[in-house]
Amino acid sequence: EVQLVESGGGLVQPGRSLRLSCAASGLTFDDYAMHWVRQTPGKGLEWLSGISYNSGSIGYADSVKGRFTISRDNAKNSLFLQMTSLRAEDTALYYCVKDMSTEWHDGPFHIWGQGTMVTVSS
Amino acid sequence: DIQMTQSPSSLSASVGDRVTITCRASQDISNYLAWFQQKPGKAPKSLIYAASSLQSGVPSKFSGSGSGTDFTLTISSLQPEDFATYYCQQYNVYPYTFGQGTKLEIK
């Protein structure tokens, strides 16, 4: 069974940084592209970033470009999201999502983790 | 960005009913359309991709159709476990975007 387990969320002050992790199991991790998606009651579901199977291609939503960095470690079956210059509007539940394809811009989303909550507040 | 508009935003139905949810894209997305189900406190679950392809393990009571800008998700013979919020998503054009959701409630 494929499992994605996010961690690293918490309460952080505006302007500070946070690094989210996603541990994958039950799949050949380096066969698939991965994504980060966040959810808030107000804005709903928002795609943030995608990374191809070998990290060769990466994409970001405009709302996080220049502030967030996606990366992966295939040897450790892990996906990461480094978040800097955090703002109150980044407060959300952050999901790690497995793609059905090798390239982040090709395939549909498939398996979602349970999410990790990030709260940006002073 | 492509806007995805779902209708209705909420829907009341009874066990055994058949319901249809509509999703409209602000521009042609071919068949790059997915549907997800989300229950309270849970992560979204993939139901359908490529507009009409059922994900492995998803019961055939769920079906999708459409192409271009207009899509539908149909759920037949509603059961208590089907009452949830449903989202559409386009993955044709970056950035990928989601509909606002349709909350399916028990009448």
Task: Quickly describe the structure.
The complex is a heterodimer of chains A (122) and B (107). With 122 residues, chain A is mainly beta. Chain A is built from no helices and eleven strands.
Protein model, in words:
The complex is a heterodimer of chains A (122) and B (107). Chain A is mainly beta and 122 residues long. Helices cover 0% and strands 52% of the residues of chain A. Chain A has strands at 3-7, 10-12, 18-25, 34-40, 44-51, 58-60, 68-73, 78-83, 92-99, 109-112, 116-120. In chain A, strands 2, 4, 5, 6, 9, 10 and 11 form a 7-stranded mixed β-sheet that branches. Chain A has a 4-stranded antiparallel β-sheet with strand order 1-3-8-7, with no helix packed on it. The mean pLDDT of chain A is 97. Chain B is mostly beta strands. Chain B contains no helices and 11 strands. Chain B has strands at 4-7, 10-13, 19-25, 33-38, 45-49, 53-54, 62-67, 70-75, 85-90, 97-98, 102-106. In chain B, strands 2, 4, 5, 6, 9, 10 and 11 form a 7-stranded mixed β-sheet that branches. Chain B has a 4-stranded antiparallel β-sheet with strand order 1-3-8-7, with no helix packed on it. In chain B, strand 9 (85-90) and strand 10 (97-98) form a beta hairpin. Chain B is globular. The interface between A and B is medium-sized, with 19 and 21 residues.
Q: How far do the termini of chain A sit from each other?
A: 40 Å
The residue ranges of chain A in which pLDDT falls below 50 over 5 or more consecutive positions are: none
Average pLDDT over all residues of chain B: 97
Order of helices and strands of chain A: EEEEEEEEEEE
Count the strands of chain A? 11
Biggest interface between chains: A-B, 19 and 21 residues
